[in-house]
Amino acid sequence: MYWIIVDLSARRLYLLTGQTVVQSWPVGIGKTLTQTPIGRYTIMNKEPYPFSHPGGRLSPYGVLWMGLSRKGYGIHGTNNPSSIGKKVSKGCIRMYNRDVETLSRYAPIGTHVVIRP
Question: Does this UniProt record's set of keywords contain Transferase (predicted)?
Answer without folding.
Answer: yes
